[in-house]
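G., the chain you wanted modeled:
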Amino acid sequence: MRSLLFVPGVSQRKLEKAIGSQSDVLIADLEDSVSLDSKAEARRITAAFLQSARSRTNAQLYVRVNDLATGLTEDDLAVVMRARPDGIMLPKAEGGNDVARLAAALRVHEAENGIEDGRTRILPIITETALGVLNAASYRGSSDRLAGLTWGAEDLSAHIGALAARHEDGSYTPLFQLARNMTLLAAAAAGVPAIDTVFPNFSDTEAFARDCQLAVRDGFVARMAIHPVQVDTINTVFTPSDEEVEKARAVVEAFSAAGNAGVVNIGGRMYDRPHLALAERVLARAAEASSA
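Predicted structure as tokens:
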């Protein structure tokens, strides 16, 4: 996956429009974009959309449920799991125990709905509370369902009382740099993709493209979007370029030709095993992008 587009689960019109966005993942949202008195209606609309969209899009279909502390998560699952979503996004996750708890609930709903055990993936947002940031290392081994790790700045701002997450030049303040970096490290430790957070100012396309390029530089392999206009930029930036693929293929082929060598020489530059691992990741990302 490269692009993950949030769509309000209460809006049938926006859900239908999202099908044409070319996003790799569509996330029907039952949380922040839905008022409390509209939750039941959003569940109904989302479940109907999941059932009808399956034959009309190649995108993976996820649902962001309400967080575990609200007491609404089970109500969300009881409705949407009948429609067999590909994954559940868990907001305000505060550690691997929350993922394990959701995994146990999903196993019950899969059994009740005739869904293959373990089919439904989990994507937690791990930095929306202070405790979530501090527990970032706990996701390793939490569940085989783990599809990746992502982070959020807006809810963390509200939780700790920060007035802004970014400096005037667009760079993150130290606290939010920490949350972002913890997500990268936690994802690497857990062996899952690191997915970058949303960029709220969707009208500033140039700033968004630069921000995506920085994300790729630092190790993120995908990004969430809040508007369809952001999807093409994400897909372009997070797809390895022809030059990157050519370079990665040269590294892999050099090591293959050298047998069990620890270091190879390509054009007068030495490449060791970490370079090989990085090259293999680039080729895997390129292959996944070409099949999207």
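The chain has a mean pLDDT of 94.

Shout if anything looks off.
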